[in-house]
Amino acid sequence: MEILYRDDAYAQSCEATVTTVDERGIQLDRTVFYPTGGGQPGDSGFLRGPAGDIEIVNAIKGDGPDGVIHVPAEGAAPPAVGSTVVAELDWERRHRLMRMHTCMHLLSAALDYPVTGGQVGEGKGRLDFDIPEAVLDKEEITAELNRLIADDHAVTEEWISDAELAAQPELVKTMSVKPPTGAGQVRLIRIADLDLQPCGGTHVTRSGEIGCVEVRKIQKKGRQNRRVSLAFVD
Ligand SMILES: [Zn+2]
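Above: inputs. Below: predicted complex with zinc ion.
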């Protein structure tokens, strides 16, 4: 399967051929849909075909490193294998996810502690940090994040081999999320000189596109764990 979201996170739709339909969902020869993974939810949208539109409520990982399964709404009539469809994202939702996902990279740069987990949502996101003491201040983190966002840093990608990543374990910040290795090459996402880490998700190209955010709460989750939750201000 040709994965279009990886080379162009701004691709909103593509023409594709239906290759497989089974109880898991619909597979295509190419797609713009990002499958759930790495703390980012799967995309939703439509497959528009000759027999009508099929609502896609989620995308999940399929077979192999590049497999994507489009999960149709309950009761939707499946498309015929071999038919041509236009795969179209719910772009407003995906763009919010891209903005918040990119903001999570900035949050991990703003707080220099090990990350133990995280979750990206449409209007909000959170990261868990391994911090023994309550040293975090909501207003300070909010101000620092909005400064990094307003500086409008470039968000770029680099590729290294699995072996090069294995030799630089310090690049892996999020202990609970396994880097997307296995295909021989790993994608790193760089935000200027602030952050560099392996990531298979979708990102905006400039930090300014994230927009204004605020830290909503900082919770204690376990003895050494602090959860920092933030949301868009708009
Ligand atoms: Zn990322």
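The two ends are 37 Å apart (CA to CA).
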